[in-house]
Design goal:
The chain is an alpha/beta fold. The chain is about 50% helix and about 20% strand. A five-stranded parallel sheet has the order 2-6-1-7-8, with helices on both faces. The chain has a three-stranded antiparallel sheet with strand order 3-4-5, with helices on one face. α2 crosses α5. The structure holds 2'-deoxycytidine-5'-monophosphate (DC). The site of 2'-deoxycytidine-5'-monophosphate has 14 residues, from α2, α5 and α10.
Length: about 220
């Protein structure tokens, strides 16, 4: 048994809001399992595309979802989702076609339900592997997946600055359109949940964003 309390850190925000870089840094600093739930929605989207199932064909979507075999591999401090025993490669889940389709699949309630227990189960993976907690990033982590998380952060930034960040990363991604779809869907829309700490990252450097989140975590852990 660990002598430390297990902590959960939920980080939500739009595309290119700074979630991934800051949650990766926090996972290193505090020995937390890093869980990027966007990569889960992307891997499932790649699976739908591979099977030629469009988001408009609900019976086919439901049939795929019912047969999904999901498991987790831990690579360093990152949780990777395996579909049917294989991790879908990064190059595949970040490609343009997945960018263009992921928000449509993510808006389908049956798809979100299929991932709910799997995402909550990552806390068990983190405990089994001896992590001090988990940091999970997404759109609905502090609102739906872990509403009782020890810390809940919501990152946002000016859309132009986010487009610049994504372009610097070399991404080919219509982030404004994805955010529009993710914020306007009926099930678990992207929004700052009541009580979460909202951080505007437009004029902050990555170390400043990380520090804003790390300070209360460090204070809690030193108690
Ligand atoms: O974090 P990302 O940009 O890689 O996420 C890809 C898409 O997945 C995003 O446009 C919406 C969806 N998503 C979601 O609906 N809920 C989450 N918790 C994480 C991602």
């Amino acid at each position: 048994m660990s002598h430390f309390p297990f902590i959960t850190v939920a980080i939500d925000g739009g595309a290119a809001s700074g979630k991934s870089s800051s949650s990766r840094t926090l996972s290193e600093r505090f020995n937390l399992l890093h869980v990027d739930t966007g990569s889960f929605y992307r891997a499932i989207t790649a699976e739908f595309l591979r099977r030629n199932v469009p988001a408009t064909d609900l019976p086919a979507v439901q049939a795929v979802v019912a047969g999904l075999q999901l498991s987790t591999r831990v690579n360093g401090r990152s949780a990777m989702m395996a579909v049917g025993g294989s991790v879908v490669p990064e190059a595949e889940i970040r490609r343009r076609e997945v960018n263009d389709h992921v928000s449509h699949f993510a808006a389908i309630p049956e798809v979100r339900t299929a991932l709910l227990a799997y995402q909550r189960g990552q806390a068990g993976v983190a405990r089994e592997r001896g992590f001090r907690g988990l940091v999970m990033e997404g759109r609905d982590i502090g609102s739906v997946i872990f509403p009782d998380a020890t810390f809940r952060f919501f990152l946002h930034a000016d859309p132009l600055e986010r487009a610049r960040r994504r372009a610097r990363e070399g991404g080919d991604d219509s982030i404004a359109e994805r955010d529009r779809l993710d914020s306007s869907r009926k099930t678990a829309p992207l929004a700052c949940p009541p009580g979460a700490i909202s951080i505007d990252t437009t004029f902050l450097t990555l170390p400043e964003v990380v520090e804003t989140m790390a300070a209360p975590i460090a204070a809690q852990l030193s108690r």
